[in-house]
Design brief:
The termini are far apart. The chain folds into 3 domains: 39 residues, no CATH class; 70 residues; 122 residues, Glutaredoxin, CATH 3.40.30.10. The protein is α/β, with parallel strands linked by helices and 249 residues long. It contains 9 helices and 6 strands; from the N terminus they run H-H-H-H-H-E-E-H-E-H-E-H-E-E-H.
């Protein structure tokens, strides 16, 4: 006797039941029988579903902890506490390396990795567009190094702010120098137009690409602060606050 027959027999023994209730019971039993057959055909499906549900809960908890670490790393970096930031980043990578938060932190990881690194022994400059005599890259003075391209709208947006910073802090010993690689879509003429439109007066040079690699530049605009032969800060130029900058002047 199958499950459907047993249910119907129980219904009849309990007394007369309306036809609609009998139909509803039959439909429910049929549904249950189908689910049982499906589970027998693929017994791993139930375990997989349970595992997925558990993993979702686990991932959610991991993301929460990873995001908290990411916020701590950003805050420590803003305070120039780079050793502490690096330690927390190592924990984020080791314990939560599969999280979305860690994927977001990879660019920050690239930036932090060069802090403390020696400045280039040789600054490979192909040509100067302006200001060659206004900067000494081997002097040990605090030097804000900026990487940009003329076609980059974000670089154009940052140019006036960088010029203002140059004017405000050059008397305190700050040097600012910009580097561009120049490509087919970014000619010398376009670089000069970029400088004119942005009102840029600080030194600008064309590099070979070696400097971009040295400073771990993967996106532009990018910047680094060099002092006493060491890279002491690295990031997007807009993230460098005046308080941070003054700490090195």
């Amino acid at each position: 006797m199958n499950a459907r027959t047993l249910v119907l027999a129980a219904t009849l023994l309990a007394g007369c039941a309306p036809a609609d209730k009998v139909d509803a019971l039959e439909q429910r039993v049929a549904t249950l029988e189908g689910e049982v057959k499906a589970l027998k055909a693929n017994p791993g499906a139930s375990r997989a579903a349970k595992g997925a549900a558990a993993a979702t809960g686990t991932n959610s908890a991991a993301e929460t902890k990873a995001n908290a670490l990411l916020k701590d790393i950003a805050a420590l970096s803003r305070e120039n506490k780079f050793d502490e930031a690096k330690a927390k980043l190592a924990t984020l990578k080791t314990d939560y390396g599969t999280t979305t938060a860690y994927r977001k932190a990879r660019k920050m990881e690239q930036e932090l990795s060069v802090i403390g690194k020696d400045a280039p022994a040789t600054w490979e400059v192909e040509k100067w567009y302006q200001g060659e005599d206004d900067v000494d890259l081997t002097s040990g003075k605090p030097t804000l190094v900026v990487f940009f391209e003329a076609w980059c709208p974000h670089c154009k947006h940052e140019a006036p702010a960088l010029e203002t910073r140059y004017q405000n802090y050059r008397s305190m010993g700050l040097q600012v120098v910009g580097f561009t690689k120049v490509t087919k879509s970014s000619t010398d003429a376009k670089v000069m137009d970029f400088l004119k439109e942005g009102g840029v007066t600080f030194p600008i040079a064309k590099e070979t690409g070696a400097l971009s690699k040295w400073f771990n530049v993967s996106g532009i605009p990018a910047a680094a602060l060099v002092k006493d032969g060491k890279i002491v800060w690295r990031g997007h130029p807009a993230r460098l606050s005046d308080d941070q900058l003054k700490a090195w002047l």
